[in-house]
Amino acid sequence: MVAFLVVAIWGSTFVFTKLLLLGGFSPAQIFTLRFLIAYAVLLIFCLWKGIRWVADTWKDELLMMGLGITGGSLYFMAENEAMNHTTTTNTSLIVCLCPLFASLLIGLFYKSERLNRTQIIGTLLAATGLVVVVLNGHFVLHLSPLGDSLAFVACLCWAVYSLLLIPANAKYDTLFITRKVFFYGLISMTPYFIVRPGLNAHLLFEQPALLWNLLFLGCVASFVCYLAWNWVIKNLGAVMATNYVYFNPVTTILFAWLILSEPITIYFIIGTVLILVGMVLSDKKTRQE
């Protein structure tokens, strides 16, 4: 249930991010501001509860850095920049297929995480439903080597992030890991702002509605959801948890329908059914255990 709710919230972020983009913010500025808010809230909470600043070893600290880059700066920059060079359909389709790549990658390193036959069928069925939902009856893809490659980089980033969370969760608590993700995600954005300085924070005062969108992205979609997602992976397993990402475009379309009045088609309904059936099958091992 927690995994489902997190993915549902993340599905809505595309809508709120679109509103911020229309308000004048760049993708890099949106990412940095939402992570700054999330890190500040989490840091205050950790100071109140008691805090540890560094990992046990320098190798573990490098692991935390890897999490911050793959699950933070590089993932968001690759995904957002991809939409500047290819269609939103291509980007959504490639990025949201990350469970397939995560399953393969994690299975190479952890035998216990490999899917059985029923789970493989469920994963493929959910992936098919994802394709139906994203394409929405328009079965024509416009190839763009640069844009599609960037979307694929974002897809691989989330797969690597899921892989790196396995050893991190084995040694450290969720609060510590999540705070490190925000910290290194922000630090790794420094080179970008050396080249292109400025956060356009004045827009939040000129358009107060944008502030609420940003607070939602920072406090809920980042602070709460990253904490919850890292906890889900720790308790459910990286492969099983990542499969819930298939439901991401479903919630995106629902929120677009509610907020932006975008239509819902029969392809959306068919694809959603396929995703739900596939997720039930892919979760079969966990239920039996």
Brief characterization of the structure:
The chain has 289 residues and is mostly helical. The chain has 15 helices and no strands.
User: What gyration radius follows from the Cα positions, in whole Å?
Assistant: 19 Å
Tally of extended strands? 0
Query: Overall mean pLDDT score?
Result: 82
Largest sheet: none
Supply database-style keywords.
mainly alpha; 15 helices; globular
Structure overview:
This protein is mostly helical and 289 residues long. The protein is 79% helix and 0% strand. The chain is globular. The two termini are 17 Å apart. The model has no long low-confidence stretch (mean pLDDT 82).
List the helices and strands and how they pair.
Layout lengths: L1 H21 L4 H23 L8 H25 L5 H8 L2 H12 L7 H19 L9 H27 L2 H14 L2 H6 L6 H5 L1 H29 L1 H5 L5 H12 L6 H17 L1 H5 L1
Helix pairs in contact: 1-11, 1-13, 2-3, 2-8, 2-11, 3-7, 3-8, 4-7, 5-7, 6-14, 7-11, 8-11
